[in-house]
Amino acid sequence: MKVLHLLSLSALLCISTLHAGQQLQIDTNALSVLKDMSETLATAKGVTFRSQSIHEVSAVTGQFITFFSVAEVALKRPDKLRARHGGDAPAFDFYYDGSSVSAIAPQTKVYSTSEAPGTIDGMLAGLRAETGIRFPSSPLLRSDPYAILSHNLISAVVVGSTRVDGIECNHLAFRSPGVNWEIWIDARTSLPRRLAVTFTDTPGFPRTVIDFSHWNLHPSLPNSSFVFHKPSGFRQIPFSAVLHSADR
Fold first, then answer.
1. For the chain, which residues make up each domain, given as ranges?
2. Which of 48, 119, 206, 248 has its CA 20 to 30 A from that of 21?
3. Is residue 180 within 8 Å of 78, Cβ to Cβ?
4. Into which CATH architecture does domain 27-245 fall?
């Protein structure tokens, strides 16, 4: 009994030490750089950028298959978003006009339209709840990226200074429940240049890496550019199905 008591006490001390260590892993310098980036994005009324991504997707064989994709994204706060995807997987376009979301897979000639909340924040949260699909870069599109990115952090560290495509960046690393992620932030403009996400709550820990470029925080974005127009000859299917039909 005495031995068991000592073992239990030892376990409790280890757990307490672990929690204390987790608290010590929050570097305020990392949070400061992250907050500057978030404020840069949040204060922009309109944003456009391009991305190149590497996604690991689970296959029926039990291994991960690597897909390379490209995207062009346009955002107009508080209630407009457009994304056009291409690359290894079939092309996929997404529209949000403030009252509805539409998805279209041109190669399979299917589309879907559904009512949506009146803000980008509400729409992104509803999309994940409805389809179960999460977009690694979606926190950058929110009205308060810092609130999303800093929520429930287990650790935050400054890895150091490095370059992405010749641009000097601050390399930061973070851990949250279910996800480990890193971000490379332009030291001059406070804009994200690279994001790497490992989903630790998914078997095999799949990984996504996204490179960002061609940032424009003052684009000309007419409201009409976010409105979806159904192409002739396309078939309407449920919203979650059109996403999967494009292998997304």
1. 27-245
2. 206
3. no
4. Clam (2.50)
